[in-house]
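Incident log, entry 3
Record: ELMO3 protein (704 residues)
Problem: checksum mismatch between cached and fresh output.
Input:
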Amino acid sequence: MPPPKDVVKIAIQMVGAIPQLIELQWSLPNAERYALQYADGRQTYITESNRGEIKNGSILRLTTSPDQEAERLYSGIQSNNSDVKTDSLKKLASLSQDVTFAQEFINRNGLKQIFYIVEEGNDTGEMLAHTLKAFMELMEHDFVSWETLSAAFIKKIVSYVNMNVVDASVQQLSLSILENMVPTSRLLFELVRKEVTLDRLLTHLQVTNAQLQLKAMALLIALLLAATDAERRDMMDYLREKNIRQFIHKNIIHSSEPLGDEMAHYLYVLQSVSLNLCERRMRTSMDPYSQEQRELLQSLRQTAFESESEASASNFSTERRRSLCAKEFRKLGFMNNSNPAEDLRRAPPGLLALDNMVYFSRHTPNAYSRFVLENSSREDKHECPFARSSIQLTLILCEVLHVGEPCSETAQAFYPMFFGQDHFFEELFCICIQLVNKTWKEMRATQEDFDKVLQVVREQITRTLSLKPTSLELFKTRVNALNYSEILKLRQTERLHQEETLAVPVLELRERLKPELLELIRQQRLLHLCEGTLFRKISSRRRQDKLWYCRLSPNHKVLHYGDVEEGVHSPPIESLPEKIPVADMKMLLVGKECPHTKEKSSGKQNKDVLELAFSIVYDVEEYCLNFIAPTRYEFCLWTDGLNVLLGKEMTSERTQTDLDVLLSMELKLRLLDLENVSIPDTPPPIPKPPSNLNFCYDFRHAEQ
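Fresh output:
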């Protein structure tokens, strides 16, 4: 008879003994003073709320109860013996990860004692590091608001960041504490911004310690995201003066150490925040009554036609001069040459297009003059309109670079060349507007072809950006090499491939090949699950949180998972204490269906997190293991793999992409002998059978 579902077999580990799987019948005096605790992993206490999660074969430790341990450590951290105090703080930092213990310790006013140790102590070594670690773990549980911190405590934390001689771990923890404080209230943001200068953060970014560098970048990003638009603009201007981009490009992106996911995310956010400074100008229409804007517009005309205008200005009447200006604005490519400000009323791109044109005319005057004068001398129908092209190109660049869009909480996609160049957006425009003129000539375009030309230019830009060039010079080389004829070849190849795959016999062959290739994809997904993936637990306050690893056993029967430390990339399966038998898995939930996304529904929901969230429902009680994938690629592979384990179809978009690639390769190999042979839509007719079947050859006569 199988055991009841609510009964599990566990091993109890006594102090100094080997854990044994035995039947126990005991009664402890003063049982309330004792508790069971997981012996592996995070060593969580067993309570009424989580005891249902105990699995068969779990190893538990009999230990003192959370309230007794909290009382003991509360006394220990007040000891006059430095060794006892240090050991107590070290144990406190470890046990504070458990929510039950944390609540007991906080209920005894334990945080007040931690504040006292920090505010009154002069230690800057191991004891302080354990104290700050314990404080961070206790605050993680959200029992206490960050706004309740005293000014003396905050100033002490700030002093550790600003010290030159202090333990690196203390500075890392101090930076993390400040990073958590900044988003919680305006008052704390202003305090941290005032006390920790940008110069100090830049100093931390220049150290060789990668973790300290990471924490400094995290605080810098937190300050930028919490600032108002005006404050953010001032901060970014100051950072530009200090050449932060060049430093990041040289010492972080191109350092000998590989770039971690966390740093890649912060660089993405810094790039996004910087580009979003263009949003205000992008969404502002031109004001025809603004003297400053009218002068910028006139400067475009004067730069292009300066010698002609000066020679004739004194000889012409006002009416003739106005007519000359209108003619020159028409040569510049404005649609409304009598009132060119009307062309810039559309927002986006608004005034950003005007800024780009002025930047191009002032910083590359020779290229600007050549563009305008070259097109002025062409026939009207073949001239490339500079102003109209600039306005549309600015809009394309805003869309491609996601200007004005909110930062993603998980994205890591940044352009290395962004950090290698000041005035990146304007410099990119200067390259691309010359590309427009080049492509226009290659296409021999007329005014009617304007949209087609800009569509080709957009394709040239996006294809080149996808290659992640490391500098604008490399981008310029590659985008110019991708000329109109190359675009046509690429389009033709894609079109021919599509036409080949739509022939009826080919479609039939595709259907026959599909089962075999889908099985190949299933095996690849399961292999990926066996290799495992590093996941992050994203809290409501910040992105940076605990790391955990999950992987499938080689026999595909058990999912192993557990917490890991920063820097561990592929832990052995034996080091992951938690297990879920695949046989106990009931279903897979994704997106809004997941319990961990529903819990956060009261706050501002992030679209990116929703797109990366999935959960496994397992066991009779329907417990959930919640995931947030690091990338969309990982999300697709894991949801596909879990569906395979559940005996369901793979539904991710990656499955279809991989299937198309494999089918394309297999079809090309199968049809290799039929190159330049047209495949008929219908099979050839089967010939009639012969009138007689007497065509057998008798080998015996040949042998004689």
